[in-house]
Amino acid sequence: MPERLRFLSMAEVVEGMVLGKPLVVTKQGIIDFTLPAGHALTETNLRQMRLRQVEFVCIRAEDERTEAEREAELAADAERLTCIFSQADLRDPALAGLHAAVLAYRSL
Amino acid sequence: MPLHLLPGQIVQRAVLLPAFPLVVKDILHTLDDESAALSTLSDLVAKDPVITARIFSMANAAASAGSGRREIRDIQVALSLIGMARLREIALTVSIAEFSRACRMDRNFWRHSVAVGVATQELARQGQFSADIALVCGLVHDIGSLWMARCQPLEFQMVRNSMEADPGLDIIDAERLHFGADHCWIGAVLASAWGLPEPVVAAIAHHHDPEPPLDKLVAATHVGEVLANALDLASPAPASVRHLSAAACTLLGLDWSQDMTYLFGCIEARVRHLGRFFD
């Protein structure tokens, strides 16, 4: 099954989720706590993260959507993005770049 | 016929708004003071029972995640646990959230403000400059709209009507049509009268400029608002992207052809996290 990266706030994170990117917490410029990408979060990790006021983490999760659901979601995202950028001149390189970056992010 | 507003009239009519929290100004001023210690900051926040309660709540949540200590009731202990940077962020966010509640504006208005606050702050963190001031710039960037809604509700509704009738109409043009001024200028007048630092005033004044002045906080607020709209962070509120200054992006070191997954994901997740203060 394909996987996808998801950025979750701490309220949405539960034990067993797998980090999609390393977690690095710094305190006054010094690394205070770190976990590697691919690490499965334990209850102890979650307590340690709450203690350090971690706000969000990047999780790697199985993409349980069917191909049709993925395509439908992407089409809906693209349509919404077209609406949001409807007053923008996409010949402008900065606007075109941002538009493409958001579309790429939505297709993750 | 548009109004002809003078700065003095804007400030005078602002008595219709709740008092802007002075603690925001005081905290921002401590950022310029290298010698400002944790005790100075704790004295400031201790004056506000709502902020103090929130700090105790967060400190106790952190402590209970640790070794099951007894309940924290001492502000110094709480502050030593959550740290100075986090304390400033909590104090700034909670005080502006309380102000927002007192203003009784539409929830979407504040969702958008939180989204721009987080996006602006993340851009500042990435660029390694003034993250606390950046958060405030984003949270209060539309303060002029608040004044318009509370102090001139008829004209505010006319702006909304004009935009509904012509979806292509820029909000700045619609506001100038009915108010003779836009929310950026009105917001800057208010922020200046409330004694907010000059960089915050400049960010409010120029966040809608197609080519804002080349200042990092102004650029971050400008791009922060564009990102909040592009990522649809205040959904279901309407979102529109019209201008994006290439010079502001360059100043912030942004290259849209690079992988933006972390920046966008971090902003989205933090907006959901911080949104709890407002919801």
Tags for this model:
heterodimer, A: 108 residues, alpha+beta, Molybdopterin biosynthesis moea protein, domain 2, 2 domains, 3-stranded antiparallel sheet, 5 strands, 38% helix, 25% strand, extended, B: mainly alpha
The gist of it:
The complex is a heterodimer of chains A (108) and B (279). Chain A has 108 residues and is an alpha+beta fold.
Task: Write up what this structure looks like.
The complex is a heterodimer of chains A (108) and B (279). Chain A is an alpha+beta fold. Chain A has three helices and five strands. Chain A has helices spanning 43-51, 67-84, 93-106, and strands at 3-9, 18-19, 23-27, 30-35, 56-62. The longest helix of chain B is centred in the middle third of the chain and has 21 residues, at 107-127. With 279 residues, chain B is mostly helical. In chain B, helix 3 (38-46) crosses helix 5 (75-82) and helix 4 (49-65) packs across helix 6. In chain B, 49% of the residues are buried. Chain A binds chain B through residues 5-12, 21, 27-28, 46-53, 55-58, 80-81, 84-88, 92-95, 97-102, 104-105, 108, and chain B through 58, 61-63, 65-66, 82-83, 86, 168, 170, 226-227, 229-232, 239-246, 249, 255-257, 260-262, 264-266, 268-270, 272-274, 276.
What's the SSE blueprint?
The complex is a heterodimer of chains A (108) and B (279).
Chain A: E1 3-9, E2 18-19, E3 23-27, E4 30-35, H1 43-51, E5 56-62, H2 67-84, H3 93-106
Antiparallel strand pairs in A: 1-5, 2-5, 3-4
Helix pairs in contact in A: 2-3
Chain B: H1 7-13, H2 22-31, H3 38-46, H4 49-65, H5 75-82, H6 84-103, H7 107-127, H8 131-140, H9 143-151, H10 153-165, H11 171-179, H12 183-193, H13 198-206, H14 216-230, H15 246-251, H16 261-278
Helix pairs in contact in B: 2-3, 3-5, 4-5, 4-6, 6-8, 7-8, 7-14, 7-16, 8-13, 8-14, 9-10, 9-12, 10-11, 12-13, 13-14
